[in-house]
Records
---
Amino acid sequence: MLNALSKAQLPRHVAIIMDGNGRWARKRHLPREAGHVAGVAAVREVVRAAVDLGLENLTLFAFSSENWKRPKTEIGALMALFRAFFRSDMDELVAKGARVRIIGHRGRVAGDIQAMIEDAETRTAGNKGLNLTFAFDYGGQEEITNAARELARAAAEGRLDPETITTELFAARLFTSALPEPDLVIRTSGEHRLSNFLLWQSAYAELLFVETLWPDFGREALTQALHSFAARERRFGALNSDAVA
Ligand code: FPP
């Protein structure tokens, strides 16, 4: 049993690359889709735990812009799960005061999902609890490229002096402009990659790679991850206090 963490020890923003659904299913001789179904149950448990722990921001990588390369049947299953999740869980999220956002391309997903996303964001826009963000059809390089293109266009049209471009101005053009940068990025399933997730935003994030496959990641695993974070020393490029003294 782990001790409760104080608010000051908690990361303000936890972002998770939910990996390993396919391997979880294969180990059980089940189709990959069954792994994604179990993955949704893990999403539900982790979101509930985040609310109970008082986390401010949780961002989950639900579908990457590269995931379109998967077989049509698997993409269809993931889209169906996304629809089902929003239908079944929105009332609970509203009741818990969560503010839901979706970051990603949007234009490429089916019209009914786009409408669902807009509805979820509108319904929860005034909520002050957990900021729950799903990265959906999201790619970090594409996000950065889009921001650069927007700034370049503004400069070309004479609306922006290139000399005034700062990191803050750039960050304001990203999907995550309303959120603090992640303090902790977790990837499950033993892979040590960022896979195009929050590339700009993770500049100073603590990275935590755990062996657990996503469907087995729950309340306890999240709590353990938060304890690992609390034990780390963050320097943001500076020296630690011992070295300065
Ligand atoms: C990676 O596992 C996971 C994904 C590509 C999608 C994540 C989706 C979910 C957890 C379910 C849907 C989410 C919501 C919010 C409804 P993988 O298939 O790459 O696993 P593998 O590497 O073992 O094959």
---
Amino acid sequence: MLELDREVGEIVEREAAMQASVLRMIPSENIVSDSVLEALGSIFTNRYAEGYPAKRYYQGQENNDALERLTCARACELFGAEHANVQPYSGSPANMAAYMAVCQPGDRTVGLGLNSGGHLTHGWKVNFSGQLYEAHQIEVRQDTERIDYDEVAKYCDEVKPKVLFIGTTSYSRAFDFARLREIADACGAYLVADIAHVAGLVVAGVYPNPVPYADIVTLTTHKTLRGPRGGMILCRESLAKAVDRAVFPGIQGGPHLNQMAALAIALGEAARPSFKAYGEQIVANAKCLAQHLVDRGLRIVSGGTDCHLMVVDLRAKNIDGKTAATALEHAGIVCNFNAIPYDPNPPRRPSGIRLGTPSLTTRGLKEPEMALVADWIVRVLDAPDDEAVIANTAAEIKAFLQKYPYHHQG
Ligand code: DSN
């Protein structure tokens, strides 16, 4: 094991100690259960299984087929979907497969812009989605920092995209998927919903489920869903073949079966009643934290959150996002700098930070603790260059977190 390779072992030990002693507030991260970790390290990592159950290009697939069928069945049950593909290595390949299933290179697409809270794969110019397709982007309104569905409808009517690709990486408001379906229908587009960030909240019933409305739903499995790093695609039966062909052989080779085993376990965990309570607490914590930050003089983009994340506009504190995120990291609060909509500052030094509550909620923090978290954040933002403040905050957080276990059983 790791004792036999001290160089790697020591890095892993340092990482474990770091993760346990800081407030991990990157909204796309979480803490998996011991069973998920165990499955990731299982002997399924030794296998290859190109193809799909009963249609593989390798022999000896009995257990691999059983595993993939079980994982797909759990995914369909949990999200109410007709078909699931559980092979995508992560979210970007899942999104690439979604495009490939319904578009040809050069087709027009409409997606949510990066600074409005969309993802790179929703048509950003340096991403494959902006290079292979004629990508058009919608932005949130400048005054409300929210999607204006009438504007989206008008824009889609002009552009006539083949696909309307909607999802969030930092948009904190719930999407109106029924309205998006109407907009897609009106211009003859496919609707793809990327719920990478909010998949666990959908399962918990605290965020709208796009499955009844979207032709294709993509997600990652490691964010609020609290599974292994990975991706998944859900779709209507009529698109199943196109989606499966896009994943393999369109983009990928063999699925990562150890990742699939871990995903099956995570989906089993997400089906438990305790997961619903977990999802509810994630959102309650995020709303509570947002309010505490507002009470302490900060502005939350769009005025708040409906999910697990928020983007904090730091301009009232005269500090940029990069400087803030670096000071917070040294103080034991790990987050990421993030652009705000219509950000006057450059992407490497934007005006905001993005905060999320999934990991803190997994550790057991609740509303009363969100006041402490807000205090620590604001203390650092008010004195980012004060070494004593930074060191004292880091020590306080480390001591505080000793009460909150880092391991859990799902
Ligand atoms: N966009 C990344 C994030 O939200 O952290 C994940 O792809």
